[in-house]
Amino acid sequence: MSKQRKEGDIGPPAPEHRFERLYLAHYPAIAAYVTRRTESTDDIADVIAETFTTAWRRLDDVPQGDEARLWLYAVARRVLANHFRAEERRSALAARLREELATWSRPTADRDGDATYQAFRRLSPDDRELLTLVGWEGLSSAEIAKVLGCSRGAARLRLHRARKRLAKELAAADLDLATYGLRAVALAEGKS
Amino acid sequence: MNTDVDRVVAHLSPGAGPGMTEGARALMRDIMAAEPAPAMANASTRAAAPAGRRGRRSRVLRAAVPGVALLAAAFLGLSWLLPAGHGLGPGTAAALDIKKEDGYYVIEVKDLYADSATYEAQLRDAGLDVTLKVVPSTPALVGSVFPTSPTEGRYLDEIKTIDQPGGCDKMGGCPIGVKIPENFQGPAEITIGREAKPGEPFENGTSIDALGEPLHCLPYIGRTVAEVRGMLQERGVTVQSFTDMDPETGGTKESVPESWLVEGGNMTEPGKASLSVYEGSQPQEPGGRRGENCPTS
Fold this sequence. Notes:
Chain B: Keywords: Membrane, Transmembrane, Transmembrane helix. Chain B: The chain crosses the membrane at residues 63-82. Chain B: This is PASTA domain-containing protein. Chain B: Residues 243-297 are annotated as: Disordered. The complex is a heterodimer. Chain A is mainly alpha-helical. Chain A folds into two domains: 12-107, Rna Polymerase Sigma Factor, Chain: A (Orthogonal Bundle); 109-192, Winged helix-like DNA-binding domain superfamily/Winged helix DNA-binding domain (Arc Repressor Mutant, subunit A). Chain A contains nine helices and no strands. Chain A has helices spanning 2-8, 15-36, 41-57, 67-83, 95-103, 115-121, 125-135, 141-148, 152-188. In chain A, helix 2 packs across helix 4 and helix 7 crosses helix 9. The model of chain A is unreliable at 1-12 and 175-192 (pLDDT under 50). Chain B has two domains: 45-194, no CATH class; 207-291, no CATH class. By secondary structure, chain B is of the alpha+beta class. Chain B is globular and about 65 Å long. Chain B has helices spanning 2-11, 22-34, 45-48, 50-54, 64-76, 116-125, 225-234; strands spanning 96-101, 104-109, 130-136, 145-149, 154-155, 160-163, 175-181, 188-194, 238-244, 251-253, 261-269, 272-278. Chain B contains seven helices and twelve strands. At the A-B interface, helix 1, helix 2, helix 3, helix 5 and helix 6 of A face helix 1, helix 2, helix 5, strand 6 and strand 7 of B.
């Protein structure tokens, strides 16, 4: 057993060790969250850098386990909200990341002509935020409550209302969709 | 409707970006290099903090413990090699095996059912100001070790566990021993998870889909009570109680309509579970814990 002990021995969770774990475990989710909500790749790099710098500074406050991811979402959300008020700031930290992101070709979907997207855009930013936390990040209402810092009940209710409003918008957009569909058929048949 | 609407939104998702790149790794190193390491004095009291807030719902520490156990799994590689034969009463043999090795006390629990006083006496004789509690735990936490300081209210990094080499199928980890530095002043309170006897309520538990628990990796969140009841039945588990999540009318209930939706759950005693539920209009896209340990579909 003493040999095994040497092999399996794990040192104390030094801050560096813990941060590394945290970073490697949650970077992809947090980077995706930021990327989906930010247009400029420079901003993406900055927001990611600031989010994780905050986590490093406040490592003591970061909860353990999966809760850490929700905590990081909440930080990224605040950084995003503040970032647009200080766009001239460029983090010196994320130079390499910024370079990489600049060469990364973001898939460009032409969503402007998409009636669904338009219906979604007509919702309030609050509604969009709730719906995307579910649809893009896959969070449950309980998890959303943690990210937004509200009660579970409130998150559930707000989410329910947001879903209803989008459903209504989509229903209203059906006409547009149908028109678009007919036009497409007409084009395909060479009638227009 | 929920499912459809959520799917529509999901389809609108812009790209997630290039993921963990070299630049991302460089950023991690840069962040740590740019500023001194933060103090981590209270790293673990935070993990335990939600216990008080959620205590109302259940006496099982289910909300607090996932954090605790993940901490253990991630940073200490916890757990315990449970002796195959136990059941010796206190006093018939040493409850603990305590050895000094390389500047550490290496402790192994020989009798998991001894009372705290027996452990304490033995630890005191060895010169250690340590309280040991062996508590009935849900499967994921059987063998988990959690050392805290009763005076400073923090997780004790100084007390280390020794991980079993190889894979581990429990959230609380699979350790084979615990080490306390010889110069450790104490006091310390170490909680170790053991199996519960039939009918014995778990005192230490975690979410029902955690690694090692019955619904691990199964999408049960958002399903109806009837559906989840069936999933549990297939695994030999019956639903003992419900926690109605409604902030006003909620609380523990013996029964709720089968059409209600499930938001969470935990094992209460061997073969029995409690589900957190709410009155939802229609089932949501079934979800579950998205963990590193679940196969990706």
